[in-house]
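Input chain follows. Return structure tokens only.
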Amino acid sequence: MENKPKVILAIGGHIGDAELTAGGVMATNAVLGGKNYTLALTAGERGNPAHLTVEEYRKQKIEEAEAFAEMMNGKAYVLRYQDGELPNNEEVRYEVANIIREVRPDLIITHWHSTMHKDHNATHYIVPDAQFLASVVECDKIQGKRHYAPIYFAENWEDDLDFEPYVYIDITPGYDLWCEALHKHWFVMNSKDFKYYDYYTSLARVRGCLNRTMYAEAFNIYDRQKIVRRKLW
């Protein structure tokens, strides 16, 4: 990513997915003056702690997403679908396509395919189709001018099937902001099932070593896009 402000749209199956896997890139973009938008296709509310109902936790998670996005110089979108029940259908694709046209990002970031979580896997297939709709289709289901942005697939411990890091992005300038913003998410800091904060902040250091920077995040792209161009003279 060039060292200048971008518009980034990070799309996750749940609130917190994009923030964990692409938050360093968004924070660095924010530090550089860019705009960052998160889109959660569900709130991820069924990971509710014992002291909150599912509906109470949904409300809290939306507030957390909004607080994170505000720190990223952007906005959080959350669709109405329930955690674990994200439909893989045309209606969702058009909803996402409309947001792509509204935001007009330079880059879209989303899930790699997953065998661990159906919402992640559905998102992996929904987003590229929505990208196509946003860039090509003119009909009454989609508003605004056509817009295209490339897709990067984020590194997520729940989506590691065949994931091969290909694009490394230096997130050193935004690392501290990202770490601060992650504290807005209750599950990131308090989950008893997985140490999200420790894993992703440590992974950023590992990827930074491979990138020859202090911190980095890694992404994959489709194999058909992996073309190495060299000039001999």
